Amino acid sequence: MRRLLDGLYTGAAALAALCMVVLLACVLLSIASRQLHFMVQGLDAYAGYLMAAAGFLALAHTLKRGEHIRVTLVLNLLQGRWKKGAELWALGAATLLALLFAFYSCKLAWQSHVFNDISTGNDATPLWLPQIAMALGTVVLAIAFVDELVLEILGRRVPAQSSEALRNE
């Protein structure tokens, strides 16, 4: 099960990286098109969709690597059962919020599909297409939070430490 979950997080991160590469291609094509005096319709909108997709798809991987911003000032002062209780409360609240976020993201994509909602730009893209990446990213994030909560309850959670704190600037 652990390999499956880690593969899910890594797969979502790989999709985010692919979105970033395609985003780069869109930006380079946009620059080239301005220099060569031609226009590709909807390129700016697609770049925005790809940027949002990259952000949402990378959320779970970022969480599992300990790279999300987390205020540990109070947690570092607590010890024993109090610290465990605070961790459980924080992970429980985050899991609930992530589940709600995932539910409503999926609902939004589904409603956009049902109502045939399209973008108002000149690309006229059906909005459910870019919203799928947001829905997928939030579902994987919710799974990651449930994973963290279960590991904390079982006493097997090893909080990832960000390497950012180790850097001296």
TrEMBL record:
Intracellular or extracellular location(s): Cell inner membrane
GO biological process, one term: C4-dicarboxylate transport
GO CC annotation: plasma membrane
This protein's UniProt keywords: Cell inner membrane, Cell membrane, Membrane, Transmembrane, Transmembrane helix, Transport
Domain of life of the native organism: Bacteria
Transmembrane segments: 12-33, 45-63, 88-110, 130-151
GO molecular function, one term: transmembrane transporter activity
Domain Tripartite ATP-independent periplasmic transporters DctQ component: 24-152
Family per similarity comment: Belongs to the TRAP transporter small permease family.
Subunit annotation: The complex comprises the extracytoplasmic solute receptor protein and the two transmembrane proteins.
Role: Part of the tripartite ATP-independent periplasmic (TRAP) transport system.
Protein name (record): TRAP transporter small permease protein
Lineage summary: Bacteria, Pseudomonadati, Pseudomonadota, Betaproteobacteria, Burkholderiales
